[in-house]
Amino acid sequence: MQFSVIIPVYNRPEEIVELLESLTLQSAKSEFEVIIVEDGSSISSREVIDPYFHQLDLHYYYQENQGPGLARNFGASKAKNDFLVFFDSDCIIPSNYFNVIIDEFEKEQIECYGGPDSSHPFFTPIQKAISYSMTSPITTGGIRGGKKKLDKFYPRSFNLGISKKVFNELGGFGTMRFGEDLDFSMRIDKAGYDIKLIRDAYVYHKRRTKFKAFYKQVFNSGIARIDLSLMHPGTLKIVHLLPSLFAIGYPLLVLGALFLSPLIWLLIFLFPLIVIADAWSRTKQFNVAILCSMASLVQLFGYGYGFINAFWVRIIRGKGSFHSFAQSFYD
């Protein structure tokens, strides 16, 4: 197999260097080309990627800012190979990634695949904590590639592969700035194509570096879930409602502890303690486990309030689509 790796980038020259460096270490380096699409960045990555033109089959393009989905579409239009692989610019790729993919292709025909994400040992404690909250079954129900999950697996754009033929047939990514990868994956599924989860084809995903930026991200993810439910009826599941119930119920427990019974504090602290215990067993780092409890609360409240906000605006009031924190989408 020959692959075309497509990476949109916006104001992240340092991160794109880490990603490209990891691609130079691939044991199957000759099997892919790399296409970088600069999406209207004010801080160009062109200069920092120069050394990699001699190490990779690398191509660089610039477009005015249109969002990550359309940047990926532009990159796909320039691809010379028959299978497209999408990574986000804040990912680091394990050296055996393409060997894993090639092994899977030798076993069966694959039209589309997705893989999970993981935390690199050299990530900062906050990055490790955010990675935990976005991958733990406690906070996500395992729907992002876990062995046990509460909903169908849909590949995300940070680690997604699809044949060029199917990509072109479906028209690529849509114009959504949030949730565009889920919309695309849902359209793939609706079109009747098999989506394979390759658990060993994981990437290290740095995600956000501050809780404030993480809150903005998951808030918009909550909004996007309502948008997706309107675009794809039947895709909204109970697991998607749980953060909203948490965001409403947790403050009510605090009020109950303040005005009804101090014993309710036991329930309030139960969730953070469960997260800390689970995260400590996984990471073996107590300071990271503490941060994991904080990241999990940020995630659930952010997603839950975004979901509630969108439900009120789009379902109850019948207004059109919207998003928040658009100016800091890539932060």
UniProtKB/TrEMBL annotation:
<feature type="transmembrane region" description="Helical">
    <location>
        <begin position="288"/>
        <end position="312"/>
    </location>
</feature>
<feature type="transmembrane region" description="Helical">
    <location>
        <begin position="263"/>
        <end position="281"/>
    </location>
</feature>
<dbReference type="Pfam" id="PF00535">
    <property type="entry name" value="Glycos_transf_2"/>
</dbReference>
<feature type="domain" description="Glycosyltransferase 2-like">
    <location>
        <begin position="4"/>
        <end position="168"/>
    </location>
</feature>
<keyword id="KW-0472">Membrane</keyword>
<protein>
    <submittedName>
        <fullName>Glycosyltransferase</fullName>
        <ecNumber>2.4.-.-</ecNumber>
    </submittedName>
</protein>
<keyword id="KW-0808">Transferase</keyword>
<dbReference type="InterPro" id="IPR050834">
    <property type="entry name" value="Glycosyltransf_2"/>
</dbReference>
<dbReference type="GO" id="GO:0016757">
    <property type="term" value="F:glycosyltransferase activity"/>
</dbReference>
<keyword id="KW-0812">Transmembrane</keyword>
<dbReference type="InterPro" id="IPR029044">
    <property type="entry name" value="Nucleotide-diphossugar_trans"/>
</dbReference>
<keyword id="KW-1133">Transmembrane helix</keyword>
<dbReference type="InterPro" id="IPR001173">
    <property type="entry name" value="Glyco_trans_2-like"/>
</dbReference>
<keyword id="KW-0328">Glycosyltransferase</keyword>
